[in-house]
Amino acid sequence: MSVVEELRGRVLVIRLEREAKRNAIDRATAEGIDAALNRLEDDPELWAGVITGTAQVFSAGTDLSAGVSLRTERGGEYGVIRRERRTPLIAAVEGLALGGGFEIALACDAIIASRTARFGLPETRRGLVATSGALFRAARALPPNIARELLISGRHLEPERAYQLGLVNEVAEPGCALERALALAEDICLSSPMAVGETLRALRAITAAEDTLGWQATEQAIEVFRASEDMSEGISAFFEKRPPQWRGR
Predict the structure, then answer these.
(1) How far apart are CA 90 and CA 178, in angstroms?
(2) Which of 51, 139, 181, 232 has the smallest number of Cβ neighbours within 10 A?
């Protein structure tokens, strides 16, 4: 199984376990995340969730070899990106959170990052654009210039700087991101689950119009690069482990 669920009292831990593929998301993994988050939303005894990876990597994003849609009915991309949640979800990040992996973290309500964590959006180095919310969520979570830098350069953001910029809630020692995320989840569980759920609903409503525009702009970008030579070249270069030869079209 590429997704494992574990109960910790009223907290559901969702663990990505596909480390041989750097926890890249294929169809089975997306469905596993979707099922776990459906459980989190539908079980009234669960008041918070934590999504995490393995000790070495959170997630490298989409498995480019999967070649299938990774959307689900309730959750959208990866089962989480467009989900309308009333139950809080915390990302506990050890190691790399790249591309869609970073976008999963951006879709959560809080991020706890180990000192080993690295955040990045390498899509443009593959002839692609970020398609799972980062085009607008990164600029919401980070200063606009920093978001632009990540989106167009492929550079990584280290956890200490991410904390200083307000992206990360807490920086943990290596191996302790899940422990610290669970501590935050337990604090959340001291609050009324109804009050927490209504707070998240209200916060989502405030940004709903902005999100609609963000998804429209994302879809426009997807239409442009989908038929491009650079997209084909970027993906071929990735699998062939060579530098891409860009043509700009």
Answers:
(1) 9
(2) 232
